[in-house]
Design goal:
Helices cover 34% and strands 17% of the residues. The chain contains 14 helices and 14 strands. It is globular and about 60 Å long.
Length: 403
Amino acid sequence: MIVKNNAYQVRTINELSPAVREELKVVADLSNTDKYAVFPGFCDVHVHFREPGFSYKETIRTGSLAAAKGGYTAVCAMPNLSPVPDCVDHIEAERKIIERDALIDVLPYASITVEEKGLELSDIDALSPLCVAFSDDGRGVQDENMMREAMKRAKKTGKIIVAHCEDNSLLKGGYIHDGAYAKAHGHRGICSKSEWGPIERDLRLCEETGCDYHVCHISTKESVELIREAKCRGVKVTCETAPHYLLLDENDLQEDGRFKMNPPLRSKEDREALIKGIQDGTIDMIATDHAPHAADEKNKGLEKSAFGIVGIETAFPLLYTYLVKKGVISLERLIELIAKNPRERFSIPYSEDDFSVWDLTDTYRIDPDTFLSKGRATPFEGYTVQGRCLVTFKNGKPVYMNK
């Protein structure tokens, strides 16, 4: 199987070097190479590796190992840490841990505002050479003037503003989608406008300032349409969604914290709009929003559990099984969404020495007890998937091997 995709292509085992094939004998039966595929290293622009500050949830070491198991060789780590990377000293502390412990490329975000509080801009000029982009992920920048000034400064440095779009005034204590399930089960809902309203504002500011702008984890049909229209106008905007928004909706909810994430699972109509968005190019990439928590933070039901699920180990098998195998998108398009587009948008280098080898015939059930991440909360527990990562190479050397 060979899928040409510019510099990004799916290769066969026979195209790898003799030395690499020799290493593969540990995990693969090379007498039958047809069932294997060699993918370019995946890239996730939205992960939470929790260190420094919350290493009981995840560390750079465990997060990067989980990423390697999922076929990822580059990730961008969000800044909701302690200390928040809002100045040079703080981001350098994070970078030292990355240099010491990361098994793959871990590229840190810097925060847009000091401590992600939305009251004062971070030192954008000084931080720019040290970060992949700027984000206050986990919190929306509420003040329009603050976001406008952030965009102006980021434009001067050539960095992207990456926005978690959420209007706090519309949340009203909600924790799942304000839809049929919430009404039927007596839950407080989060309205769709809390997401698409800030996107509408930011697109206007983006046009005004000329800043490069990227929207995190979109989940509503209105968000898709706003971004589609903005792209037609020439606005410099890209966006991502996550596997759970493409494969699940509020009809799949259960009274369990592993179904609680922010933004929440929306309606069937929203999910269908997101599918259309990845098909027509409105949505540029799929990111996991890998957000591990300790077990006691996720076992308190929908209302009281922490927001966030894990996903970096299961992303490709889920997307391959439920999108590619079902004919929703092609394998070539999936590689664009999880390897090519993220790297090109965020200027993350690509090397043919970064790749993973998969057995695309291996079928199994998702079992959180096998995860390498410290997090275990996934709404896909028990799902049957096809495709298992056998080995991931970074710079030509194996960093994960399924033994």
